[in-house]
Write a sequence for this structure.
C-alpha cells in the first residue's frame, strides 16, 4: 500500500484540504528519517513495524486535534524559524505554587511579566506527582493531569493561550527518562501486567543489576546505593535518580510511541517548548556508562521527527549536565534547538570567586559556537544546584588543577573560605573529600545576604553576561528583586533533606513592593536589570549567537564582541575584580577611537583606554566598516 493511501485512511471528514496537504508534505519530508531511526533503534521485527504504523496514526490524530490557533502559529514560525534568536527574547522560570499559588493566580501576574519584558516562561514541573517528596515534581505520575493544588489541564491550556496573546511562549518540563512509581504504568507493572512490565527495567534478582552497575555511576548515593532499588515483591527496578523515579525502557518501541503521544498531547495544550529532562540517561547498554550513548541522540531525533509532522513549531530544549563536549552533541536542528549553557553559568560564578576571567574567556572562545538554527539558554542560576562542570583538560591549559579548583569553589560558596561573601548551602556534601554542589539564590551567593558592599554589582555583572552572550537569557523569577535564601525548607516535610529548596523561596512580595525604589536592595537590583533588559531589546547586535572573544590583557576583565549586520559591533567589557581595572589603549587600538555607550547613551573616547570600576561592565557600539 502506498504512503498516500495509508495516510488517506487516517484523514477525518472534517479535515480541510489545506490542513491535510500540510500534514502530507511534512510526513513525506520526515518519514524517511523517522523510519531509518526506528530501524536503527528497534530493527525490522513485527513489534517495531506495528508500533511505527500506530505511531503514524497517532501523529495524524494529533495534527487533526491541533487547535486552529496553534496551526496558525506553526505557519508563522515556519516563516520565521529563528524567532527564538531575537534580541527581545527573555526567559523567566518559576514554580507555580511558590510564585503565584496556582495557575489562575499566575495569569494575574502576566502584566508584571510583560513589564519585565518576558517572552518565554518556563513553569517548573506542575503535573501530578507523589505527595511530600517528588524531587520537586520530577517524579511525574501523569503527563496529562495537572497537580490538583495548581489547577487543571483546562487552566494550563487557558494560561498558555493568554501568554501567547501577550507574546510569551510557554515552556514545561518533559520528564522522559523516568516516571514516578505512582504512574499508572508503574502501578500496572508492579501488579504484574506484562505489557507494562516491559515499560521499565525490571529484574527478578541481582544478576542483571550487578552486571549493569559494574560500569554505571551512582547519581544520588544519599538516596540509595547503585542504580537499582528493590520492590516489595523482591524484584529490582532501575532508578537512576531517586528510588521513586523508575527509568523507562526505551528498548521497547511501545515506550517510544507512548511518550510521543504524551509530547503531542502537551503540544496541543499550547506548550511551545519542552525541556527534555536528563537527556543523557535515556538509553541503557550493558558494559557502558549508560550516559550519552548514540541511541540517546537517535531517540531525540526520532521524537523530533514525529513532532515536526504533527506539531511543527514545538521546540526541544536539552538539559544535559555532562562534560562540555557532550553537552553540545545534543544541540542540533534535528535534535534540540535550545540547550542550557551550564558551563557558562558555572564559570561566571568561578570568575566572581577568583576575580579571574581566564576559564570563562576560554569557554567563550572554544565552546560557545553552535550549529546554525540553534541557541543557548544562558542563565546565572537555576532551580537546581550549581555543579562545577568545566573540563579538567581546559583548566590544565591555564595551569589550574581541576580537582583543587572545585574544592576551592565549594569552600568559597558555602562560606568555608576566609573572606568569602557567599552564603550558599552545600548539596550532597562530603566534608572529607570536599566534594559537593552549591544551592542558593543569586543574591545570597553574590553576597547580599552577608551584607557585602559589592553584592548588587556582582548580581548585575553576572546577569549582564547572560544577557549579552546571545541566545535566550533566563531569569529565575524573584532574583530580579534580589530574593535571599529561604531556610524555611528545613521545616517542610520532604524538603529538609534536599538543600536545593533553599534556593526556591516563595514569592518575595515585600521585595517586589520595593522594586521601584532604587534606594532599596530590591529596587537597585530591579532597576539595574530592567535597564539591561531594555537596552538589550534595543540592540540588534545581540540577536543570534555570533560572538568574538578577545584578550583584554587584564586577567580580571572579560572582553568579547557581538558583530552586527549593518557594519557595527557591540564591544562588551566586564570587570570581575573588587577594584577598578584598566584596559590599555594598546588593547583597544584595533577599534575605532570613538564608541557609543549603549547603557548610558553617551559617546566614549577609546583612544586613551578605559577604566572600569569594580564589578562593572560596558556595552559599547562601534562602527567596524
Amino acid at each position: 500500500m502506498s504512503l498516500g493511501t495509508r495516510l488517506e485512511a487516517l484523514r477525518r471528514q472534517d479535515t480541510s484540504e489545506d490542513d491535510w496537504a500540510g500534514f502530507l508534505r511534512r510526513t513525506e519530508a520526515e518519514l524517511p528519517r523517522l523510519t531509518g531511526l526506528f530501524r536503527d533503534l528497534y530493527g525490522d521485527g513485527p513489534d517495531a513495524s506495528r508500533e511505527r504504523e500506530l505511531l503514524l496514526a497517532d501523529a495524524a490524530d494529533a495534527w487533526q486535534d491541533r487547535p486552529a490557533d496553534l496551526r496558525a502559529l506553526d505557519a508563522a514560525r515556519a516563516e520565521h524559524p529563528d524567532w527564538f534568536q531575537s534580541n527581545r527574547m527573555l526567559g523567566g522560570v518559576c514554580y507555580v505554587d511558590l510564585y503565584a499559588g496556582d495557575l489562575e493566580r499566575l495569569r494575574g501576574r502576566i502584566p508584571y511579566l510583560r513589564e519585565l519584558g518576558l517572552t518565554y516562561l518556563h513553569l517548573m514541573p506542575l503535573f501530578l506527582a507523589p505527595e511530600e517528596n517528588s524531587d520537586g515534581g520530577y517524579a511525574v505520575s501523569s503527563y496529562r493531569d495537572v497537580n490538583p493544588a495548581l489547577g487543571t489541564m483546562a487552566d494550563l491550556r487557558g494560561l498558555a493561550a493568554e501568554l501567547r496573546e501577550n507574546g510569551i511562549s510557554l515552556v514545561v518540563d518533559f520528564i522522559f527518562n523516568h516516571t514516578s512509581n505512582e504512574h499508572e504504568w508503574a502501578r500496572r507493572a508492579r501488579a504484574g501486567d506484562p505489557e507494562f512490565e516491559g515499560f521499565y527495567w525490571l529484574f527478578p534478582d541481582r544478576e542483571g543489576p550487578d552486571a549493569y552497575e559494574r560500569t554505571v555511576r551512582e547519581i544520588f548515593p544519599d538516596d540509595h546505593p547503585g542504580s537499582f532499588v528493590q520492590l516489595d515483591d523482591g524484584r529490582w527496578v532501575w532508578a537512576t535518580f531517586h528510588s521513586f523515579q523508575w527509568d523507562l525502557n526505551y528498548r521497547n518501541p511501545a515506550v517510544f510511541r507512548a511518550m510521543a503521544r504524551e509530547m503531542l498531547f502537551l503540544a496541543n495544550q499550547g506548550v511551545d517548548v519542552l525541556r527534555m529532562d536528563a537527556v543523557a540517561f535515556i538509553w541503557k547498554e550493558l558494559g557502558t556508562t549508560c550516559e550519552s550513548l548514540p541511541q540517546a541522540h537517535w531517540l531525540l531525533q526520532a521524537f523530533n521527527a514525529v513532532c515536526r509532522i504533527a506539531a511543527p513549531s514545538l521546540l526541544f530544549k536539552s538539559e544535559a549536565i555532562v562534560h562540555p563536549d557532550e553537552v553540545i552533541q545534543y544541540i542540533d536542528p534535528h535534535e534540540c534547538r535550545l540547550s542550557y549553557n551550564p558551563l557558562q553559568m558555572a564559570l561566571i560564578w568561578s570568575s566572581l570567586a577568583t576575580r579571574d576571567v581566564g576559564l570563562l574567556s576560554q569557554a567563550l572562545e572554544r565552546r560557545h559556537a553552535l550549529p546554525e538554527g540553534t541557541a543557548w539558554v544562558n542563565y546565572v542560576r537555576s532551580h537546581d544546584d550549581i555543579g562545577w562542570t568545566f573540563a579538567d583538560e581546559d583548566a590544565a591549559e591555564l595551569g589550574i588543577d581541576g580537582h583543587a579548583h572545585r574544592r576551592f569553589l565549594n569552600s568559597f560558596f558555602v562560606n568555608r573560605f576566609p573572606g568569602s561573601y557567599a552564603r550558599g548551602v552545600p548539596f550532597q556534601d562530603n566534608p572529607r573529600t570536599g566534594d559537593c554542589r552549591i544551592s542558593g539564590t543569586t543574591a545570597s551567593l553574590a553576597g547580599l545576604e552577608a551584607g557585602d558592599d559589592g553584592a548588587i554589582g556582582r548580581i548585575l555583572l553576572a546577569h549582564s553576561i547572560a544577557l549579552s552572550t546571545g541566545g535566550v537569557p533566563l531569569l529565575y523569577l524573584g532574583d530580579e528583586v534580589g530574593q535571599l535564601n529561604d531556610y524555611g525548607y528545613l521545616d517542610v516535610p520532604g524538603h529538609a533533606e534536599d538543600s536545593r529548596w533553599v534556593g526556591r523561596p516563595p514569592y518575595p512580595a515585600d521585595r517586589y513592593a520595593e522594586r521601584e525604589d532604587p534606594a532599596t536592595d530590591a529596587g537597585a537590583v530591579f532597576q539595574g536589570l530592567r535597564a539591561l533588559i531594555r537596552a538589550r531589546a534595543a540592540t540588534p547586535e545581540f540577536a543570534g549567537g555570533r560572538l568574538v572573544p578577545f584578550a583584554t590583557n587584564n586577567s580580571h576583565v572579560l572582553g568579547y564582541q557581538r558583530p552586527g549586520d549593518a557594519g557595527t559591533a557591540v564591544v562588551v567589557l566586564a570587570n570581575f575584580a573588587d577594584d577598578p581595572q584598566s584596559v590599555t589603549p594598546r588593547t583597544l587600538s584595533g577599534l575605532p577611537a570613538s564608541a557609543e555607550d549603549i547603557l548610558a547613551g553617551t559617546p566614549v573616547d577609546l583612544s586613551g583606554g578605559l577604566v572600569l570600576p569594580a564589578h562593572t561592565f560596558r556595552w559599547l557600539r562601534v562602527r567596524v566598516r
About this structure: The chain has a mean pLDDT of 95. The CA atoms of residues 178 and 330 lie 19 Å apart. DSSP finds 22 helices and 23 strands in the chain.
